[in-house]
Design a protein that fits this description.
With 109 residues, the protein is mainly β. It has one helix spanning 44-49; strands at 4-5, 8-16, 31-38, 59-67, 71-79, 82-90, 102-108. The radius of gyration is 14 Å and the shape is globular.
Length: 109
Amino acid sequence: MDDTLRSGTQTVGFHVKKVPKNLRNGTDGYYSVWLAHLGDTTNIRDVTKWNYINPAPYESLGGFEYLPPSQTAYITADFTPGRYAWIWFYQGMDLLGNDTPLVREFIVE
């Protein structure tokens, strides 16, 4: 995906390649991906460290759960100009411990 998208309603695909087990706690697992609209001052470190204590440091725009490796899922959203991110989790992740989700930030113009 490019680092910049245009505003408006768009359908965006997210493809998960098979990830080595050492990068996902040895699981064969599934993946969960969320689309987030970030505020102007949202720090990506706050997003990766969030542990489900509300409020979240972003606005959730949806996502998908239990995506098998080597599959693609799609989400349709009305993108307004600003900062966004994909937040990616994997099965077996210890969100209350040392594991942190992967975050890929992008801009909508």
